[in-house]
Design the sequence.
């Protein structure tokens, strides 16, 4: 990578870290370190909430998802506005006004200690795995840039991020998120402009090509619970996912607990309700734009550089033959794409489009053969979707813009990882160490334990990251991890808002909810978004039934 790009990366990351720590105040107390003394304004909290989601996974995984699957993924967020409105009148005032540091403290106030601890444990498990996936995304970028093993790329990001989180507390994290949010939007818009300028066809023709391959299909109104992304899974399953993520996940709850008031906390969530879907659509459109761009500029046969190198070393002749076949097929597809752009009347356009689709099918067949070859050689899935955008950025973007994008990816990763690690440390200390090990100690003692917990969770995340990059689209992996736990956790908090619910019903309901979701996940083909609905419904139904039985037993 050119030295100018490196200057941009280093300068920006230095600024983010230094300015974030400079804005931190009173981090020598628990209230300051974990909750910023409830001093953050709504716009800081709102941008921090969005930035935690618009992470390196979004920059890489979602854009790659757009390139391979189009806009359908945006349906995941259709339930977000409704979820934010519901939270604004339910959990936000409940938690913000209860004086707690974590969402799970409230569960002990409402139910009992075992329900609090089990729920907090499930959060630690789910978020610990998710933060590893978030760390894997920039690891993919650095691995592609330097040609180093993924594990070392993960360490290069994980170590400084852990150190930064240990020092800064929630205030440093929130202010770093604000800068991250701005840089991400600037980088995405800049890339979209470059794609439009460098595209050899009119934007209308580019959209026609994208539409012909299904990349612009946004709405799927079919009601199939085995289909991952549909309108109904987004509105119903997505609402439950967002309710749980923003309402019960400590990484998000900790943001609005640091807001100055309940009103400002609600306003911060409405920022996401209004802007998350348009921003997610922009991210996916960048991926679609890259797909169309590669109709006219030959992309790599294998996007994963490490797998490409391994295949060349072991099966050079066979791979060269496949490359020649690929180059020939690409030339034919490029000609067909230009014919689509130049077609005049409908009859000509339809004929040209059919030829193009046939050529596209040939390309996908050849790429499938290359991926099979790579899997045979390396013994692992190539997961090219995670390497599409890094290769495009490094090979195609102008000088300076590549550095801007990479800075955005790394800074996004550091901010998101620090947010997750901070919440993991908070829950570990408040819900377990202070609750069960040392109920009475000084703030200095708890802060020291918190910094140690941050380091341990950072190590755990690094281990998960080396595995997560092989699982597929990183953005999908994050939501799969979350959906496994989120529905059942949400069910407990829903029970907490129902006066007649009892502690035994909530605890047993949570266990059965996780059991049912585990069965659905491992033994059926039900799409993961529906697991959020299933888990919540099972917990609430079981909890209310058992609570009714407890009340009858108590009254008899």
Sequence:
């Amino acid at each position: 990578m050119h030295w100018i790009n490196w200057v941009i990366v280093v300068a920006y990351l230095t600024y983010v870290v230094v300015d974030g720590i400079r804005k931190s105040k009173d981090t020598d107390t628990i209230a300051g370190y974990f909750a910023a003394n409830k001093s953050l304004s709504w716009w800081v909290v709102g941008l921090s909430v969005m930035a935690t989601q618009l992470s390196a996974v979004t920059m890489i995984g979602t854009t790659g998802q757009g390139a391979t699957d189009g806009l359908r993924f945006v349906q995941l967020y259709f339930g977000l506005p409704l979820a934010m409105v519901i939270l604004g009148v339910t959990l936000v005032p409940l938690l913000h006004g209860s004086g707690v540091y974590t969402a799970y403290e409230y569960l002990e106030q409402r139910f009992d200690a075992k329900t609090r601890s089990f729920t907090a444990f499930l959060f630690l498990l789910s978020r610990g795995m998710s933060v590893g996936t978030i760390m894997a995304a920039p690891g993919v970028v650095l691995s592609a840039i330097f040609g180093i093993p993924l594990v070392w790329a993960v360490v290069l990001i994980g170590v400084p991020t852990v150190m930064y989180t240990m020092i800064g507390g929630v205030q440093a994290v929130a202010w770093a998120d604000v800068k991250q949010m701005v840089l991400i939007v600037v980088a995405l818009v800049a890339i979209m402009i470059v794609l439009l300028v460098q595209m050899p066809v009119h934007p209308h023709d580019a959209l026609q090509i994208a539409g012909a391959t299904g990349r612009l299909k946004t709405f799927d109104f079919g009601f199939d619970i085995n289909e991952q992304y549909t309108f109904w899974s987004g509105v119903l399953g997505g609402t439950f996912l967002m309710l749980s993520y923003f309402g019960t996940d400590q990484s998000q709850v900790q943001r609005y607990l640091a807001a100055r008031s309940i009103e400002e906390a609600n306003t911060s969530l409405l920022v996401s309700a209004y802007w998350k879907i348009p921003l997610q659509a922009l991210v996916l459109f960048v991926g679609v734009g890259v797909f169309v761009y590669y109709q006219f500029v030959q992309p790599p046969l294998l996007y994963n550089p490490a797998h490409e190198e391994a295949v060349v070393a072991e099966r050079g002749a066979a791979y060269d033959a496949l490359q020649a076949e690929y180059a020939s097929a690409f030339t034919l597809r490029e000609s067909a794409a230009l014919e689509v752009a130049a077609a005049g009347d409908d009859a000509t356009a339809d004929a040209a489009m059919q030829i193009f689709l046939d050529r596209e099918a040939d390309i996908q067949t050849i790429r499938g053969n290359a991926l099979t070859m790579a899997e045979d050689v390396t013994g692992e899935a190539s997961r090219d979707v995670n390497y599409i955008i890094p290769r495009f950025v490094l090979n195609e973007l102008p000088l300076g813009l590549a550095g801007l994008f990479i800075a955005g990816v790394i800074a996004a990763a550091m901010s998101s990882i620090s947010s997750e690690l901070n919440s993991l440390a908070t829950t570990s200390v408040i819900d377990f160490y202070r609750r069960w090990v040392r109920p009475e100690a000084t703030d200095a003692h708890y802060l020291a334990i918190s910094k140690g917990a941050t380091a341990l969770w950072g190590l755990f995340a690094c281990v998960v990251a080396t595995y997560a990059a092989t699982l597929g689209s990183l953005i999908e992996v994050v939501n799969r991890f979350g959906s496994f736990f989120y529905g059942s956790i949400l069910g407990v908090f829903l029970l907490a808002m129902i006066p007649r619910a009892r502690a035994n019903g909530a605890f047993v309901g949570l266990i059965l909810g996780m059991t049912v979701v585990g069965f659905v996940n491992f033994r059926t083909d039900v799409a993961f978004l529906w697991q959020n609905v299933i888990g919540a419904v099972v917990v609430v139904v079981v909890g209310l039934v058992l609570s009714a039985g407890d009340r009858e037993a108590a009254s008899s």
Observations:
- The chain has two domains: 3-102+116-284+393-470, 305-382.
- The chain is about 80% helix and 0% strand.
